[in-house]
């Protein structure tokens, strides 16, 4: 499957348009108040309308309850729910059944033992997202701009549908893909000039670098049709 590129944490019409025009396959919106990338429901509704069918809309939440998820789904109308907290496999199954949407589960990685959780989640999730494990003092689980040892992912089942995140930028995405053979890459802080402030030039540079590392055009069964 050709590479998918996701730009996450978008919060302005300008940077969203840049990501769309540059060819992002997925655009992510953060619904977590402790994050500098958090968007309210009103803004999410406006940005969602701007996307139309040009990319897959992804809603990122952290241990959200059903009422919160329902509000997010109503506002954004996402095609994919990204669960970035401590949600169990059973919780994923419940969310999929309740909302009728595919889910992507983030798994934080710092050492090989962290990969023990993969099998249980992979049986339920439509995608796995490997991200760097946040330090204990962190106030949010991701978007911290820190990579992990990509070699930890060597030996994964080649059939596993996973994306890579954590400290990626235009300068290291090619190496990250070479080591991990990920089916997609997800960037947030690596295309920012300050926390939560996306830089249009960095967005374009990242997408260009990712495409250069994976020369085939993206195509995915879950992607919206033009």
What does this structure look like?
By secondary structure, the protein is an alpha/beta fold. The protein has one domain (4-213): Aldolase class I (TIM Barrel, Alpha-Beta Barrel), CATH 3.20.20. The protein is built from seven helices and ten strands. It has helices at residues 13-22, 41-51, 66-76, 89-99, 118-122, 173-180, 200-213, and strands at residues 4-7, 26-31, 56-61, 80-83, 103-109, 127-132, 162-164, 184-187, 192-194, 197-198. Strands 7-6-5-4-3-2-1-8 form an eight-stranded parallel β-sheet. A hairpin with a 2-residue loop joins strand 9 and strand 10 (197-198). Helix 1 (13-22) runs parallel beside helix 7 and helix 6 runs parallel beside helix 7. The longest helix has 14 residues, at 200-213. The protein is globular and about 45 Å long. The model has no long low-confidence stretch (mean pLDDT 91).
